[in-house]
């Protein structure tokens, strides 16, 4: 992102921000509610264009929305809610893109789906419907879907995985499992990942680098080790949840 701004009417959500994400990096974006974290994900996913400035993926400027691009970049979203299609089986959900492209034999699709489910610790649930699974299992199925490679891809490209609040509302043990999966999924898919999260354990366990967004700017950036111990006032306030500090709470 270079000098990138996003405005809604007279409100400036992102104000000439610059951000570079290294290939293979795991980045976590933090910041108070309304700071623009989901906006960052929507920009990276090609669901929203900046008001000004530029966004490039793999060095290619993104000037169209994803649906208007001839060959959209390999960006895979893992939503806050797993967003599985309720009328399709787990196998059809995980293999959705492969079925849609229709280029692979059924047997190969089944093998790929089985391998993706195995990678997230699920087995033998291919024929179940999403509604039959717990919320945590549904999340893991959505991770398996992000692992599916599209062999019809024109050129081999490092995928970008986007995780929007992946551990919101989960118990601490389920959080740990999902945090491990973020790391594992990024490795298995040989991907770069960007995670938006408020959850401290998720920030600490799934990030290599953290950026803090507030009032239209990235206020701090550093490694996760630095995030744990630094005395930057924004980070200290975010870590402690204190009402005192440079950040004011959003209107409630
Ligand atoms: N379609 C829209 N029209 C007008 N304002 C919008 C629109 N979408 C987002 N905004 C505003 O942009 C700001 C940033 O929204 P965004 O969802 O990116 O914040 P966030 O940091 O992800 O917040 P949260 O942590 O609460 O999810 C918010 O103040 C929101 O009201």
UniProtKB/TrEMBL annotation:
InterPro entries: AAA+_ATPase, ABC_transporter-like_ATP-bd, ABC_transporter-like_CS, P-loop_NTPase. It holds the Pfam family ABC_tran. Residues 1-240 form the ABC transporter domain. SUPFAM superfamilies: P-loop containing nucleoside triphosphate hydrolases. Keywords: ATP-binding, Nucleotide-binding, Transport. GO terms for molecular function: ATP binding; ATP hydrolysis activity. It comes from the Bacteria. This is ABC transporter ATP-binding protein. It comes from Cyanobium usitatum str. Tous. The lineage of its organism: Bacteria, Bacillati, Cyanobacteriota, Cyanophyceae, Synechococcales.
């Amino acid at each position: 992102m270079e000098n990138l701004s996003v405005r809604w009417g007279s409100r400036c959500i992102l104000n000439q921000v610059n951000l570079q994400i290294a290939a293979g990096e795991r980045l976590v974006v933090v910041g108070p509610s309304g700071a623009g974290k989901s906006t960052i994900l929507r920009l990276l996913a090609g669901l929203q264009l900046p008001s000004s400035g530029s966004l490039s993926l793999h060095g290619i400027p993104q000037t169209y929305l994803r649906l208007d691009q001839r060959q959209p970049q390999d960006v895979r979203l893992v939503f806050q809610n797993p967003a599985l299609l309720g009328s399709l089986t787990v196998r059809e959900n995980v293999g959705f893109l492969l079925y849609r492209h229709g280029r692979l034999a059924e047997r190969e699709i089944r093998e790929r789906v089985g391998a993706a489910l195995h990678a997230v610790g699920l087995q033998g649930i291919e024929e179940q419907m999403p509604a039959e699974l717990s919320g945590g299992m549904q999340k893991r199925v959505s991770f398996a879907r992000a692992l599916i490679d599209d062999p019809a891809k024109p050129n081999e490209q490092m995928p970008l995985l986007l995780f929007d609040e992946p551990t919101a509302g989960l118990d601490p043990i389920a959080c740990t499992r999902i945090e491990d999966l973020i790391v594992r999924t990024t490795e298995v898919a040989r991907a770069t990942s960007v995670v938006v999260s408020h959850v401290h354990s998720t920030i600490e366990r799934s990030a290599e680098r953290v950026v803090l967004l507030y009032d239209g700017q990235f206020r701090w950036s550093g490694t996760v080790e630095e995030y744990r111990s630094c005395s930057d006032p924004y980070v200290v306030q975010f870590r402690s949840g204190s009402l005192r500090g440079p950040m004011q709470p959003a209107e409630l």
